[in-house]
Predict the structure.
Amino acid sequence: MSNEKPTIVEAPDGLAGEGFFATSLDKVVGLARANSIWPLPFATSCCGIEFMATMASHYDLGRFGAERLSFSPRQADLLMVMGTIAKKMGPVLKQVYLQMAEPRWVIAVGACASSGGIFDTYSVLQGIDRVIPVDVYVPGCPPRPEQIIDGITKIQELVKNESLRRRNSTEYKELLASYGIE
Amino acid sequence: METAQHSASYLPIFIQFLIAGGFVATTILGTHLLGPKRNTKKKLEAFECGIESQGNARLPFSIKYFLTAILFVLFDVEVIFMYPWATNFRALGSEGFLAMLLFMGLLLLGFIYIIKKGALKWE
């Protein structure tokens, strides 16, 4: 099985010739960003354990370019929130999100991060989209590593197709303003 | 005449150095001036895993770290001097041997001083 040729990401549409390849900048930047996402694992509970399995050799998230995890938001692209977030943890999560450099994406892994899960109590935040904007939700309690990889693949699609000027668009600015983020 | 040829032949190296340095400076300045920035007050706060940072990161620390490092540098330089002596050992003969003995003897005096003063004591 190790002798098979590995699957490589297919090149975008462009003009290919002898020793050169011409395409648009958006596509190249999107391709580069999508296949080299550096995640920040904000692992709080059981979904964190499933994430450990995802990063390990059997399910290997590193195949998709996410080999280098970063626990500092300054060097991370994707905030992976995995686990139950309490209301006390909400401002902490928001501060970590604010300290990430643009472009940044957020994936909510598991039922607790998406909507509070089975913990509909006074202390649990009912979904992290109450404090930060979320791009992809991965349901499950906990989701299997395959589901987490599916979520990452969807994030990759988002990253690949994101316009370079998205940060200046009005709808994005309104989205951030609704969360109180400048 | 020979020296004029020699100094002119260094010109390509100088130009290459300018190009390398110029490329580095241009890219750093270019990204600094042209890159989009979104600096808000909360974003610029020192990262402390999401909670408020307290105090100054610059605190006094014990001098034993500095002493160990600087003494290592000194004696490492002495070892570096011994490498060319080792390659030309026979050619240098007894003169070279005596000169190296003098060199190492002076450094040995310094080493005795360090030990007596207790600079290498790590508590």
